[in-house]
C-alpha cells in the first residue's frame, strides 16, 4: 500500500515545519511559509545508526579508532581539513559565484584519482563537456579513475555509486539535487534536508568522503536550511575579492580538526595555486616609514599571519565626518576612535577616517585594535614609525591594553621576517620566554604608552 503524502508548511528562513500556514514564523519572519508535500517515515527507518534498538553502552567501554585521512594532494586544503579528508565524512564548501569552488574540487578530484582511487564527480549545473574543459585547463592529464555524472536525481546518484563504488564523491551542488520522495522543487528546504540525509547515509555506510558544494545568499550565508550545516562534519568557506588573485579558505566547523585554520590560494590561469608564505603575500609592496601603515598579526590555526593595516585621516568637507572600514568591524573602529579622542587627546570629530585591511583578509578577534589605533594616529599626525614595527593587542574602553593570544609565536615570526620591534600589552611579556636578539619587545599598559613607543 502506497504511503500518503501529507501537507506541511515550511519556513524558508529557518526551516521550521508547521501543519498549518502561519503569517509569522517563530523566527520572526513574515510570509515565509511555503506548502510542501512530505512522506511519513517508515517503521524500518534506514537512517538509524544501529539495529539493536535503544540499548545504551557504557562510554568507558566504547572503543576508539584512529581516523584514516585521505590526502587531497593540496597542502593548504589538507591544513584546513585538519590533515586531509576523513573517510565517511561530509564536507560542505561554499562561496560566492566565480570564487573558485569548482576549481578546487576538480583539482582535488584529479589528485585523488591519480593515486588510483575511483572518484565520482556529480554535477547538476554543468554538462560533461564543461567539466572536461575545466579539467583540461587545471588538471593536466586526466586520470582514468575520474568519473563524471551530470545528474540532479539523487536516486540515480545512489545507483551510480552502487555501480562504480567510488572512494571519493563530489556533489555540485546540493541546491540542484532532488529526491523522488518529495514533490517540492530542487533547492527547497525539504529537498535540501532530505538530500543531505541521503548523502550522509551514502557516506557513512560506504565509508566514502563526500564534498558537497553549496550556494550562498546575498549576505554571504549558506542558502537553505541550517540543518545541513549541523548535519555535515566540516563547513568550509571560500572568500576573496574579485579584483584580486588571493583566495582564503576558512573552516567554520570541523569535527576532525580546528576551526581557526585558514588556507591561502592564488587564482591563476592553470587553477588555484597554494600560498606557502601567506604573511609575505599580505605584506607584499609594503614600504618602511609610511604614514598611516602599521603591521598587525593574528594567530590562525597553527601559524601566525601578518598583514598591513592602513588608515587615512583627512579633514571633512561635508559637515559630518565619515567612518569607513574595509575588512574591519565598523563598530569596533568607532570605539577605537572614541578611545583615541578621550585617552590620547586626538581631535577627530571633524576628520574623515578610513581603515583598510590590505589583501582582503577579515581577521577575527580583537588583537588588531592596537595596530588600527596606531595607524590612525600615524595618519592624523603625519608621523611614520622610525623602525619596522609590528603591533598587537586589544584596546579596552579605559584605554588599557589586554593580552593577545599566542604572542610568543607571533614574536618569533616577526623576528624571522626582519621586524625590529614589536609593541604589545605588558601582560604578554611574561609569555615571551626567549626574546630574539634582533627584535625589540616593548610592553605597554595603555594606548598613551603605545603611542609614545610608536613615535619614538
Protein architecture, described:
The chain is an alpha/beta fold and about 450 residues long. The protein has helices at about 75-80, 100-115, 130-140, 155-165, 190-205, 225-230, 280, 330-345, 370-380, 405-415, 445-455; strands at about 5-10, 15-20, 35-40, 70, 85, 90-95, 120-125, 145-150, 170, 210-215, 235-240, 245-255, 260-270, 270-275, 295-300, 305-315, 325, 350-355, 390, 395, 400, 420-425, 440-445. Strand 20 (about 395) and strand 21 form a beta hairpin. It is globular and about 70 Å long.
What does the secondary structure layout of this molecule look like, with pairings?
Elements lengths: L5 E6 L5 E2 L14 E6 L30 E2 L4 H7 L3 E2 L3 E6 L5 H13 L5 E5 L4 H11 L7 E5 L3 H11 L3 E5 L16 H18 L3 E5 L12 H5 L2 E6 L6 E9 L7 E7 L2 E4 L3 H5 L10 E8 L2 E13 L7 E4 L3 H14 L7 E7 L11 H13 L7 E3 L2 E2 L5 E2 L4 H10 L4 E5 L14 E5 L2 H9 L1
Can I get a quick summary?
The protein is α/β, with parallel strands linked by helices and 456 residues long. The protein is built from eleven helices and 23 strands. The model has no long low-confidence stretch (mean pLDDT 85).
Amino acid at each position: 500500500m502506497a504511503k500518503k503524502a501529507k501537507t506541511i508548511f515550511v519556513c524558508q528562513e529557518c526551516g521550521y515545519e508547521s501543519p498549518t500556514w502561519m503569517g509569522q514564523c517563530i523566527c520572526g519572519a513574515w510570509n515565509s511559509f511555503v506548502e510542501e508535500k512530505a512522506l511519513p517515515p517508515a517503521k524500518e527507518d534506514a537512517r538509524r545508526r544501529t539495529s539493536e534498538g535503544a540499548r545504551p553502552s557504557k562510554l568507558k567501554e566504547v572503543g576508539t579508532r584512529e581516523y584514516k585521512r585521505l590526502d587531497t594532494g593540496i597542502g593548504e586544503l589538507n591544513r584546513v581539513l585538519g590533515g586531509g579528508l576523513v573517510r565517511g565524512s561530509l564536507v560542505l564548501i561554499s562561496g560566492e559565484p566565480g570564487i573558485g569552488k569548482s576549481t578546487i574540487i576538480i583539482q582535488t578530484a584529479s589528485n585523488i584519482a591519480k593515486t588510483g582511487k575511483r572518484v565520482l564527480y556529480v554535477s547538476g549545473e554543468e554538462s560533461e563537456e564543461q567539466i572536461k574543459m575545466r579539467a583540461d585547463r587545471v588538471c593536466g592529464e586526466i586520470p582514468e579513475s575520474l568519473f563524471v555524472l551530470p545528474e540532479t536525481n539523487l536516486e540515480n546518484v545512489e545507483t551510480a555509486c552502487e555501480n562504480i563504488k567510488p572512494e571519493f564523491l563530489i556533489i555540485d551542488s546540493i541546491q540542484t539535487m532532488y529526491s523522488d520522495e518529495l514533490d517540492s522543487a530542487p533547492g527547497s528546504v525539504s529537498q535540501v534536508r532530505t538530500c543531505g540525509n541521503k548523502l550522509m547515509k551514502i557516506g557513512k555506510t560506504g565509508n566514502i568522503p563526500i564534498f558537497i558544494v553549496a550556494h550562498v545568499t546575498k549576505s554571504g550565508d549558506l542558502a537553505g536550511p541550517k540543518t545541513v550545516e549541523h548535519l555535515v562534519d566540516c563547513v568550509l568557506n571560500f572568500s576573496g575579492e574579485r579584483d584580486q588573485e588571493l583566495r582564503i579558505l576558512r573552516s567554520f566547523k570541523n569535527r576532525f580538526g580546528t576551526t581557526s585554520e585558514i588556507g591561502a590560494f592564488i587564482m591563476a590561469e592553470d587553477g588555484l595555486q597554494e600560498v606557502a608564505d601567506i604573511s609575505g603575500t599580505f605584506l607584499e609592496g609594503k614600504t618602511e616609514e609610511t604614514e598611516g601603515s602599521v603591521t598587525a598579526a593574528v594567530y590562525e590555526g597553527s601559524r601566525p599571519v601578518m598583514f598591513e593595516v592602513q588608515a587615512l585621516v583627512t579633514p571633512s568637507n561635508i559637515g559630518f565626518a565619515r567612518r569607513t572600514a574595509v575588512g574591519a568591524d565598523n563598530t569596533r573602529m568607532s570605539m577605537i576612535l572614541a578611545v583615541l579622542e578621550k585617552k590620547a587627546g586626538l581631535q577627530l570629530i571633524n576628520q574623515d577616517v578610513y581603515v583598510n585591511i590590505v589583501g582582503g583578509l577579515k581577521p577575527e578577534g580583537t588583537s588588531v585594535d592596537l595596530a588600527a589605533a596606531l595607524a590612525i594616529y600615524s595618519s592624523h599626525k603625519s608621523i611614520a614609525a622610525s623602525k619596522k614595527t609590528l603591533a598587537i593587542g586589544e584596546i579596552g574602553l579605559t584605554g588599557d591594553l589586554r593580552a593577545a593570544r599566542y604572542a610568543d609565536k607571533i614574536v618569533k615570526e616577526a623576528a624571522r621576517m626582519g621586524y625590529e620591534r614589536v609593541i604589545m600589552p605588558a601582560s604578554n611579556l611574561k609569555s615571551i620566554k626567549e626574546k630574539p636578539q634582533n627584535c625589540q619587545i616593548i610592553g605597554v599598559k595603555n594606548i598613551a604608552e603605545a603611542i609614545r613607543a610608536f613615535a619614538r
